[in-house]
Each structure stands twice: as structure tokens, then as C-alpha cells.
Amino acid sequence: MRDSTKIIRSGLTPATPGAPLHSGPVFAAPYHTPGDPAAAAYSYARSHNPTWTELEHAIAEMESGPGYNANALVFASGMAAATSVFGAVLRPGDAVVMPSNAYFAARVLVQEYFTKMGIELRSAPSAGNAQAELLQGARLLWLETPSNPTMEVCDIAALCEAAHRAGTLVAVDNTTATALGQRPLALGADFSVASDAKSMTGHSDILLGHVATRDRELLAKIDQWRTLTGGILGPMEAWLALRSIATLPLRLERSCENAQRIAEFLTTRKEVESVLYPGLTTHPGHAIAAKQMRYFGAVLSFTLHDRAAAERFLAHAKLITEATSFGGVVTTAERRARWGGDTVPEGFIRMSAGCEAIEDLIEDMAQALDTIR
Ligand SMILES: *Cc1c(COP(=O)(O)O)cnc(C)c1O
């Protein structure tokens, strides 16, 4: 069965006559648990919930590949998922190798908290597999490709091989690609981590994340971390996520196609200084991206002359909603430097291609660019 078919059918209930095709959210704190608690599949909702279980099965199917089955655990956010890996794996004296261009909150978390608990942080850019130089004696290699927001690409399979030779575990933040677009576990990673608030669920209305792994012992540690820290997902969000994931193949195909067309259009405009999208053959990571990704993703970045040009573009584009985050069905964009934190030019815009008709988006962008001549 093809992945798109598997994903679309992954939330179906067994064909019991009269039963609904999909189950609803299960709301519970404690569950009926008479006598020996081991006899009940569910006892208390901080540990487990049947709606999570359904969602975790759907995500695990997506993360599984030829010759192996993955398991997945869902969290209240992408950051809760990322924290579980750092927390379950790192101990005082350990070193973690992160991309210097990694997602801002992940960098700050390690810098502000984990380094103060005796963890050594080593950083190098994603581009050019520069992190490979820092692996000696490291406990964990954290990758992000394509990275947010600078769209840097690294070779997951090559870095996993180098890391495993050095006795280092590998986690990949796979948020921008989703497990349908890129499968880190099949490329050798020990953990695939993502914010599923982005392309995975795609409607800009829920926050959640997950960790997937093929290793039972690592899974048990992540599960224990979640139960002890309590950073859990509500059943309503889990149910909405299940509904949303059924359309992932459709949304991803359309939004990635739109992102490619937008990136190509932007390269033809003289107001645009540079365009970063791994689907462009001119992108320095294109060959690696083409090897390891099934879709190049919905996110692209481009640079206009300065802050004023970027603000003018965003103010005049009627079909581009100015907002942070990405991966929704509606096209969004923002001037990234307004937040501080990322080392990007003042005129740098991160855009997330939605599922609209591409002709409308390009017409709208053309008139918005005309205003900054
Ligand atoms: C958004 C994002 C996160 C954090 O996810 P939340 O769900 O917002 O906590 C982590 N990594 C990347 C690459 C992201 O884009």
C-alpha cells in the first residue's frame, strides 16, 4: 500500500456494523481500574489516552519504513517533544551537538537550562554537514533539515553513520518536512522529532508534537519522561490532529508544488535579492534534499532590500496573511528579523505556501512587489 493510502485510512475504526467510521475524542482523567491496575489498558490520563493511541498509531505508520516499525509518542507541543529527548538522554558531563541555526527555542532551551546542568553544547551550521566535526565523545547529535528559517540542508544518512561510529545518538527535528516528506528513522536516526502544529496538521488551530523511534528502550525513557513531567496533549487536540492528518498527502502535495512555483517566480523578480528553497536547483543543499526528501516542503525564505521593502511587500500582499509559524492551508509570511534571535537580514521574509490556486498567489505577490520599486 502507498503511504498516502495508508495515511488516509489510518484513523478508520474496525468495520463493526453500525459503528461510526471514526471514533470521537475520549475525555477521561481516571479510567475504571478495579483491582490489579496492570489488568486495565488505561488507568490515569497523564500516562495514556485512547485518542492519543489512535494518533500515535497513525504517526508511527508514517514514520515506519522498509524493514522496521516505528513507535510514536505525542506531546502538547513540538517543544515538549524536543525537551523529552534532551531530558531523557542527556546527563551531566554529556555533550550535545546542535545546529547553530537550529529552531530558536530549542537553542535557547539548551543554552539557558541544560548547559547550566552540566551539559556541554557544541554548535555548527547545518549546511555542509559541519556538525560532523564536533562528534567526538558527544552523547547526542541534534539535526534540523531543512532548517527553520534559513533552509539549510544536511545529509541525514551520512551524519547518522558518522555519529553512530562515534557512539552518538541522533535526533532529527523533522518539523519543516513532516514524516511524509522525509523519514529520518529510515535514514538511520534514533529519534524523529516534530512540531505537528505545522504542516503535519496544517490548519493553524492546534499545538502538538511527537517523538518517534524504533528503539524500545529509548521509547520507554521518552514515555516515562512524558508521564513524569506531564507535558501532555488534550484528547480534543489529539482528535483534531487525527482528522487533519488524513488530508496531509493532499495538503503537502499542493503546498509544496505552490512553494516551488513561488520560489521560481521570486527568482525572476529584481526586487528579490535571494531565494532559499531546497527545491531550487541553485540551492546549495538541493542534491542532498533531492536524495532524502520526497517533498521539498511548504516553507521558503527570500530577502528584499531592507526592512521597509519587506514591510511594504507584506502590507500590500492581500492573499498573504502576516503571521508566524508555517504549514497551514492558508499562505502566510513574516519579516523574520522582527523577532530578533535568528541571524537574518532585515529584509528577510519566511513564507509558508498554502493550498490556494497558485495563479492567485503569484498575481498577488507580483502586485505587492511592484509597490516597492
Ligand atoms: C515550531 C517549531 C518547533 C516548536 O514547536 P511548537 O509546537 O511550537 O512547540 C520546533 N522546531 C521547529 C523546526 C519548528 O518550526
UniProtKB/TrEMBL annotation:
Keywords: Pyridoxal phosphate. The modification N6-(pyridoxal phosphate)lysine is found at residue 198. GO terms for molecular function: cystathionine gamma-lyase activity; pyridoxal phosphate binding. It comes from the Bacteria. The keyword Ribonucleoprotein does not apply. Its cofactor is pyridoxal 5'-phosphate. GO terms for biological process: cysteine biosynthetic process via cystathionine; transsulfuration. GO terms for cellular component: cytoplasm. Belongs to the trans-sulfuration enzymes family. This is Cystathionine gamma-lyase.
